[in-house]
Amino acid sequence: PVGGKMAASEAAGSEGSSALSPGGEEPPAAAAGPSAGFRLTAVRREPAVRLQHGVSGLEPLAWSEDHRVSVSTARSIAVLEQLSDIHSGGQELVIHRTAVPAPAGGCLLKVGSKKEVAECKEKFANSKDPTVSQTFMLDRVFNPEGKSLPPMRGFKYSSWSPLGCDANGRCLLAALTLDNRLTIHANLNRLQWVQLVDLTEIYGERLYETSYKLSKVETPRGELGDFSEFQRRHSMQTPVRMEWSGICTTQQVKHNNECRDVGSVLLAVLFENGNIAVWQFQLPFVGKESITSCNTIESGINSPSVLSWWEYEHNNRKMSGLIVGSAFGPVKILPVNLKAVKGYFTLRQPVVLWQEMDQLPVHSIKCIPLYHPYQKCSCSLVVAARGSYVFWCLLLISKAGLNVHNSHVTGLHSLPIVSMTADKQNGTVYTCSSDGKVRQLIPIFTDVALKFEHQLLKLSEVFGSVRTHGIAVSPCGAYLAVITTEGMTNGLHPVNKNYQVQFVTLKTFEEAAAQLLESSVQNLFRQVDLTDLVRWKILKDKHIPQFLQEALDKKIESSGATYFWRFKLFLLRILYQSMQKTPSEVMWRPSHEDTKVLISDSSGMGSTEDDHQEEGTSKQTSKHSLCEVSKGTDTDDPADETLAQSSDIGGHEPMEEKLLEIQARIEAVEMHLTREHMKRVLGEVYLHTWITENTSIPTRGVCDFLMSDEGYDDRTARVLIGHILKKMNKQTFPEHCSLCKEILPFTDRKQAVCSNGHIWLRCFLTYQSCQSLVYRRCLLHDSIARHPTPEDPEWIKRLLQGPCTFCDSPVF
């Protein structure tokens, strides 16, 4: 299956040539039957999300690392966020939908002063030379407003950054409109997307200041009145694609000459003339002030169509480059010099991966890091969609230099590939054509290079007759998102097109559970697609499989990591929801029957429906009873609410006992996780306080809370508390209620209640009472946290940046 081999010295970085030898192509997919070990089982998942507008651009679908799906449409980018909801008993996917609207005004690239540009446009439009006037009038880059032509609204491409780039530690969205405006957006409050920066405008200003020269030694070009110069200035700032790099570390020198490591990320923007602008952003990215630098690279590729980052790690050294593909066929890697980036290296010269001008345009490129089991080293698999074929290239560094093996996979589709996506965890590649056929390519390493196992997935067997416009695989490979419209019926095309985003499963429950148990990430939020498969299985079967319980208990006994405790809490919460009785009618709908209600004198927060469903005398009293029910179930734990709703008069006592038993287990796991986090907080207090100091953390209250339970015997906690109490020197530093100045005792991990009955919720990250009207909440509404203040020291700000201690979700 290996078409050619090229060795280029890593030190010299010399450019080599590679060509397919006769018979160097992979056998057709039909000839390579799938082995039984790689059988693909796809199951449809509801709901299907209908789009308000038709899709636009190439590769309209993208799935971020924080489980958000972006869909480029003619009026906006629809963003679908997948949640693994712990408060709902429904078996469907839980999706939170937002949108990034397209700008109302058109984008005019800055090619000169406004007066000069207006004069040149009038000159070219009225030119007697038809090659000038017609080219100018019909080019939408020169005329984005279009006049008599339809407006250029919509999006050409969107790209997600790595996790941890915005102020909340989530992904940024780079969006490219059809009229060539490149912007970066962030979703800071979950309900609204905010534009942080317009890179097209900034890049145009930079070019204007340098007279549209990339270097100082470059000779000046012609005037703007020359049509070729007018075209050149537009071409050098018309984006084609953009891609984010991984997060890298840069060194920043402080005022006292100390160096500190600062995270940064790179955004590569490919332009129409073949140039690549590499933007460097400091993290967290908050706007224009976060831009560190912008460098332009000349690729030398004519008619560039796509790019991707090549990031390779060899002997603890990270190497980087940019893979650029052309509409004429060639593919090559360009070196990227990253100054002041810790531990980063690059190639000295470009490396050609495919040099034939065979007129097969490169549509999409994916670079997948893998481990070579025979060579015992890391390697990179580069796959590119070219027409109806898949070009692949295996890159690995050995003592001989950079080894390149390349070939093509043929016989996959009868139509051109319209979309390609890859699961970067195991290297599986998915391609699709417009006829609804999806191919799964699984790389299998050989002694020399690799081969592919092929599998065909017919979406018509899952969704019926459909046409496909794009696919994207979830971060952990559990789901495949597909954009579909109606296919042909009885040989006839549909009258109307309804664009939908539909989901199919790519893994079984057993595979998802095994991956969660052996995960190196140990973060539930970053594996939402896997936890959703587990959630779906438990809600259907109404029990946790025995093998999963036993395996999880063994993990907890052997390692004791809090990740496995959080996984156990997740399973118990879903089991609790699966046993809830579905309400026969909507709870908020008022009853039209005259019922009698006896308001029982129940004490505290423990009232249930049994206390409020007795017979009464009037509708007014019935409404009052309904309010009492909502008050009685408004407890801190959401499970209490569902427990109250599920109680049934005169029966189902075994079910109620089961629910109470599960509730007790949930409380026990939550208490364990709370104690573990309290130990971490106390450890930070001990490390960062030298003398008796009144921090915002209620240190004495946390210590007393941990020591109050006689059944809790943790020697580490007792030793730590002893050291802290000795350092505090009998000082207590109690919290006081801001309304009545009374002392707030630390008797509850979730809330603080003063002697006058004022209730304040506690921050789950620092356990301080949140005595303000504004606070943050975790993504699944599991816990609340306060905002950092300017007076907080750095170590408390780091604590407040942490995720939820129960579900790993970020905090907003």
From TrEMBL:
SUPFAM superfamilies: WD40 repeat-like. Residues 508-585 form the DUF5921 domain. Signal peptide: none annotated. GO terms for molecular function: histone acetyltransferase activity. Residues 63-507 form the Transcription factor IIIC 90kDa subunit N-terminal domain. GO terms for cellular component: transcription factor TFIIIC complex. It comes from the Eukaryota. Residues 7-34 have a biased composition (Low complexity). Residues 1-34, 598-652 are annotated as: Disordered. Residues 729-779 form the Transcription factor IIIC putative zinc-finger domain. One of its GO terms (biological process) is transcription initiation at RNA polymerase III promoter. InterPro entries: DUF5921, GTF3C4, TFIIIC_delta_N, TFIIIC_Znf, WD40_repeat_dom_sf. This is General transcription factor IIIC subunit 4. It comes from Pelusios castaneus. The lineage of its organism: Eukaryota, Metazoa, Chordata, Craniata, Vertebrata.
